[in-house]
Amino acid sequence: MGRSLYTKLILIIMTLIVAFMAVVGAFLLHGVRNFYLSEFYQQMQSVFSSEELAEDLHHAADADNGVSAIADILNAYKGPLGIDAGTRNYYILDGMTGGYITGSNDPAEEITNTANILTAMTGQSGYASDASADFMDVAIPLEGTSGRYIIYIIDNKSTVQSLNGDLSHIILQAMAVGLLISVLMSLLLAKTLVTPIQDLTHAAERVADGDFDHKLENSAQDEIGVLTNTFNDMAGTLEATLDDLKKSEQMRREFVANVSHELRTPITSVKSYSETLLEDPDMPPEMRRRFLSVILNESDRMSKIVQDLLTLSRFDAGSIEFEFTRFSFEKSVRDVYSAMRIEAQKHKHEFTLEFLTPVPEIRGDRGRIEQVLINMVSNAIKYTRDGGKVKITAGAKDGKVWCSVRDNGIGIPKQDVDRVFDRFYRVDKARSRESGGTGLGLSIANEIVSRHNGNIQLESKAGRGTVITVTLPVEGPADV
Ligand code: ADP
Fold first, then answer.
1. Cβ neighbours of 349 (radius 10 Å)
2. N or C: which end of the chain has fewer CB within 10 A?
3. pTM exceeding the 0.85 threshold for the entire prediction
4. 427 lines ligand 1 (CB under 6 A)
5. Whose CA is nearest to atom 11 of ligand 1?
C-alpha cells in the first residue's frame, strides 16, 4: 500500500512538473516568435515611413541608373533595416513581374511571389504578416522614370529559430531538473506521509492481533498527527473494553462456580441424611429428629441462598422496585437495636446504642435500609467472640445521616478488606457457614445503599475489630 501511494505521488508530481514546463515553454516560444514578428514590421514601417527616404528613393527611381541608385540608398540604410546579408536581405524586383533584379546578396533560389509582392505589384505597400510562414517580408512599390520596381525585404527567421532552439534546450534542461526535484520531493513526502501511514498500518495489525502494548509515537500536529492520536485513543478504549469484558466474564465464571459450590454442600447433606433415614426405619426417634432438623436447616440455607441470589439478580436487571417514603432514620436504628438485642445477649456481648446528634427524617426505602442495618449488626455479632463489645452510633452531618457499627471481634486481614463486598466472598468460609452466612449480605447491602446514593465503608484490623459505616443523603436519590 505504501509503495503504491509512493508511486502515485511521484507520478503526480512528475506530471505536474512536465505539464507546467510544457505550458510555460509553449508560451515562451510563442512569445519570442511574436515579439520578433512585430519588431520586424515595426522596424520596416518606421524606416519606410521616413519622408526623407521616400524622397531619396523617388529621386533614385527617376535617375537613369535607377536600380543601382536605389541599391545605393538601401545599402546606406542597411543598419536601420537590419540587413545583414545572411538572415535578412533586400532585393530590388521588377515592379511588373516580381522578377529579381539585384539585392544585398544573390538569392539561392528564385524569389517566389509572396502575398506582399503581389500587393506591391498592384501599387500598394505589402506589410501583411503571417506568423505561420517561415519568413517575414515587406514589399514596397516604387515608380520612377527609369521604371517600376519593388523593394523587397525578407527575413528567413533563422535568428528567431536559433533563439527558440536555445530556449527549448533550456526548457528541457529545466524539465529534467524539475523531474529530479520531483523525485526528491516524493522521497521527502514519502517520509512525512507514507511512513506514518505505514506505522499506523503496523499498529492496526498489532491491535488486530490483540497486542495493545505499543502506543504510536506522535509529534506532528497535522491531519496524520490527529489520526495517530485518534488511533491511540481508539486502541486505549478498545483495550479497556476488552479488559472489562474479560473481567466480567471472569466474574461470571467465578459466580457460577460459587453458586454451584454453595448449593452442592446443603444438597449433599440433605441427600445423605434422607437416604440414611429411608434405609433405617428403626432409627431411634431422637436421632431421627436430629437428622430431620439437619435436613430442615440445610433446606432453609438453600432457600436463603436462592432468595439472596434472586434479590441480587433483580438488582442487576434493575427490576427491583424501591418504595421511597419519608421515615425516621433514628427510629429505624432503634428498632434494629431492639430486634438484635436478644441475638447479642445470646453471645453475651456488651451491646450499646448512642446518638451523637439529633437525626432527621430521611427519604428512602425503610424496609431495605433496615435490612442493611441488620446485616451490619448481625455481622458484628457473628464475627466477635462471645462476651465482646458491639456498639451502634448514629448521627447527622451536612445533609446526610450516618450509622456505624463497631465491634472488637476477629477483624478482617488487610488484603481481604476490599473484597468483602464481592459476591460470595468470605474471609473464613467455615465460620460464616456455621453462623448461617451466605457471603451475599454485604453485596446486597452495597447495592441497596448505592441505589440511595449513599455509601458504605468498612475499616478493620485483624484480631482487633471492625467498624462499618453507612452514610445516606437525607433527601434520597435525586431521580426518584
Ligand atoms: P456473610 O453472610 O458471610 O456474613 P457478608 O456479605 O455479610 O456475608 O460478609 C462477607 C464477609 O465479610 C464475611 O464472611 C466475613 O468474613 C466478613 N465480615 C463482615 N463483617 C465482619 C465483621 N464485623 N467482622 C469481621 N468480619 C466481617
1. 24
2. N
3. no
4. yes
5. 426
